[in-house]
Design goal:
alpha/beta; globular; binds 5'-deoxyadenosine; binds FE2/S2 (inorganic) cluster
């Protein structure tokens, strides 16, 4: 028997109802949840799928996030950093493939100089009519402002979990400042970015109510973009090895499964109807056959095909067996296109701001 009440579109999602849905296992009830999310997606952001070309600029990182395969302490990882010309080349590839947004992501790499980055943003904007999303970690307000002034449109920074104890266990702070990503998101919004965040699903020590609170925080922050994916243990990390963590009642532990991910994608769509929600690479990694499609059918409306040069992207190993790691930019494009058309959906023609709009509000 389903333990949840039937879900209406725009349902009144509270801590209790979200938690009940996260724990729901009845197949018919879940089918109803997924349908409600799909209808809400269509009504609010339409049938177009936004393609965002992802450039992984650098896998150097000064942080030690306990789950992450490119954290500072991964000594045996080959490190790379794209130079200006390589980045401009990737942006040109993205544009040639028809992508209307370029996402520049990296580890928290201080050698990515703020002024050089601003120059690159300006150059991409002068050469191509594209939106620019940045995902470069926790930087200073001055840097966020400089990049915004140079033309960056959006910034992504996941808060990973809204539970402060769990957050602190898996995110050692830098010695000279506390890590407060929610405060950063609020600053980014003030500076004028569209803001994106998200969490991992099934982190060791993550309880059902913690995850329900994450979804409520997505709504409270009024996020424009929300990325969620399963936690995938990396064997060469403290969390993957089990060296850090917190003890909780096993019945409280959220599983890091494919089905949990769909539930969170669907509930996120219902909580934030206008948001851009990707069907993530982590989801495609646990189900290489159909993960991307099922994400798109259960609330998601964005995919982020990789345009990083193939010889570099193999080193951007945040978790093992990552999808799309060996494919070229062209192969990923062809693959995504096939998947989108097979669903009867189409590739977006505009820049895809929040709510399916092609210009900022
Ligand atoms: N498993 C799943 N997702 C991960 N990320 C980092 N490491 C892992 C992992 N081991 C996610 C984080 C980060 C994003 C870029 O990738 O949520 O914000
Ligand atoms: Fe990259 Fe399918 S999307 S290979």
């Amino acid at each position: 028997m389903p333990s949840t009440t039937p879900i209406a579109d725009g349902a009144d999602l509270t801590l209790a109802t979200i938690t009940a849905w996260l724990r729901e296992t009845d197949a018919a009830a879940l089918a109803e949840l997924f349908d409600a999310a799909d209808r809400t997606r269509r009504r609010n952001v339409g049938d177009e799928v936004q393609l965002r070309g992802l450039i992984e600029l650098s896998n150097h990182c000064r942080r030690q996030c306990a789950y992450c395969g490119i954290a500072r302490d991964r000594k045996d990882l080959t490190r790379y950093r794209l130079d200006r010309e390589q980045i401009l080349e990737c942006a040109a590839t993205a544009k040639r493939l028809g992508y209307q947004t370029v996402v520049m992501q990296a580890g928290e790499d201080p050698a990515i100089r703020a002024d050089e980055m601003a120059g690159i943003i300006r150059e991409i904007k002068s050469r191509h009519d594209v939106a620019i999303t940045l995902s470069l970690g926790e930087r200073n307000d001055d840097e966020f402002q400089l990049w915004r002034d140079a033309g960056a449109d959006r910034y992504l920074i996941r808060f990973e979990t809204s539970d402060h104890d769990l957050y602190d266990i898996i995110h050692p702070s830098l010695p000279y400042r506390l890590s407060d990503r929610v405060a950063i998101l609020k600053r980014l919004r003030e500076i004028g970015y569209e803001i994106g965040s998200g969490v991992m699903i099934g982190l060791p020590g993550q309880r059902w109510e913690d995850l329900a609170r994450d979804i409520l925080l997505f709504r409270e922050l009024d996020l424009d973009m929300i990325g969620v994916g399963p936690y995938l243990p990396h064997p060469d990390t403290p969390l993957g090895r089990g060296d850090v963590g917190r003890e909780i009642d096993p019945d409280e532990q959220v599983p890091n499964t494919e089905e949990m991910t769909y539930k969170v994608v669907a509930l996120t769509r219902l909580a934030c109807p206008e948001a851009n929600i990707p069907s993530t690479t982590a989801l495609a990694t646990i189900n290489k056959g159909l993960g991307r499609e099922l994400g798109l059918m259960r609330g998601a409306n964005v995919v982020m095909p990789n345009v990083t040069p193939s010889d570099c992207r193999i080193h951007y190993e945040i978790y093992p067996a990552k999808a799309c790691i060996t494919e070229s930019a062209e192969a990923c494009f062809a693959c995504m296109l096939g998947r989108i058309h097979a669903l009867g959906r189409r590739v977006a023609t505009g820049k895809g701001y929040r709510g399916g709009r092609n210009t900022r509000n």
